[in-house]
Amino acid sequence: MAATTFEMDGSVMEGGGQILRLSAALSCVHGSPIKINKIRAGRSTPGLRPQHLSGLELVRDMTDGNLEGAVVGSTEITLTPGKIKGGSHVADTQTAGSVALLLQVSLPCALFAGGPSELCLKGGTNAEMAPQIDYTVKVFKPIVEKFGVYFDCDVKMRGYYPKGGGEVVVKVNPVKELSPVNMTERGNITKIYGRAFVAGVLPFKLAKDMSTAAVRTIRKEIKDLYINIQALQEKDKACGNGNGIIIIAESSTGCIFAGSSLGKKGVYADKVGVEAAEMLLRNIRHTGCVDEFLQDQLIIYMALAKGTSRIRTGPVTLHTQTAIHVAEQLTTAKFSVTKAEDESSSSETYIIECHGMGASNPSL
Ligand SMILES: Nc1ncnc2c1ncn2[C@@H]1O[C@H](COP(=O)(O)OP(=O)(O)OP(=O)(O)O)[C@@H](O)[C@H]1O
């Protein structure tokens, strides 16, 4: 008997690509068809961009499924997933579309596959409005391991806007089910480090300027920690020109936060460094356990886990609220967001609690 197709409104709340990725991933994990309409209606160029299209094609291939209406610019698609199989799959945005966002849609599927997966993801490794691949590896990966999600990510080639040309190979082992997490103790910041890079024809001085400006900015607030932001010239493993920075902070309780930024034409390198530093400071001033980006990226794992997860956060972003909305529509998970009332919450912090649906891998 054909399963009924769920309809998801892609224009609700944040109205961006995240709704599409979450809906597609959950549809694959459930094995039930989904129709997503008004895709990215909240954006100036609505409809699918190459990154969204490649991500959908990837999960279609991973599930031997069927995808209708999916071309660049479409505002309505229907995905009918089959059984998630393991094996090797390639997704190529053919642009600087983010490989980290290709992983965002495909990782939940790979976890509930019948065997190990190897995903070759091509596009931008350090792209705007997306996690830099360094964020995925250094921030997202160690935290998502707390749910029992393990993957290896090999950065073969870095790629930047506008050329793309980056490539990462991600290996994922399937799981039976995911464990809930409890991240409610922030502890003290014990380590701050990062990387400031240039690639292609751009002068190494830009990397040093980003690093110096970032350290200077952080020093104004944090005086007692050694801050090591390495300036790097990307050589053989980089396609095209680019520059950027990511700064990571770790706490005594294992929380990890980041601030990052990418160079743009006409923007001074030290401004790029200051922007990343200010982003990091904003995310460690509160006593939450995740930064403003990890918040929304963890929602799907909270929803899929078996049991109750609790995460202390700073101000809850619209991306996070949207992810919760989608997860509640498409799973039996129940979320609550409450203002933290205890003594350590002099800043605005919240507890996101989720009673997960306890998704179980039918193949294991
Ligand atoms: N600087 C950053 N560091 C880490 N993650 C980031 C950063 N900027 C954005 N992200 C993450 O990237 C994702 C962006 O989702 P979003 O829906 O906005 O993007 P999109 O697919 O490019 O679509 P759209 O173009 O519609 O915005 C979110 O999960 C967000 O947390």
TrEMBL record:
It is an enzyme of class 6 (ligase). It catalyses: a 3'-end 3'-phospho-ribonucleotide-RNA + ATP = a 3'-end 2',3'-cyclophospho-ribonucleotide-RNA + AMP + diphosphate. GO terms for biological process: RNA processing. Keywords: ATP-binding, Ligase, Nucleotide-binding. Its EC number is 6.5.1.4. CDD domains: RNA_Cyclase_Class_II. GO terms for molecular function: ATP binding; RNA-3'-phosphate cyclase activity. Residues 13-337 form the RNA 3'-terminal phosphate cyclase domain. Catalyzes the conversion of 3'-phosphate to a 2',3'-cyclic phosphodiester at the end of RNA. The mechanism of action of the enzyme occurs in 3 steps: (A) adenylation of the enzyme by ATP; (B) transfer of adenylate to an RNA-N3'P to produce RNA-N3'PP5'A; (C) and attack of the adjacent 2'-hydroxyl on the 3'-phosphorus in the diester linkage to produce the cyclic end product. Likely functions in some aspects of cellular RNA processing. Function plays an important role in regulating axon regeneration by inhibiting central nervous system (CNS) axon regeneration following optic nerve injury. Belongs to the RNA 3'-terminal cyclase family. Type 1 subfamily. NCBIfam families: RNA_3prim_cycl. This is RNA 3'-terminal phosphate cyclase. It comes from Paramormyrops kingsleyae.
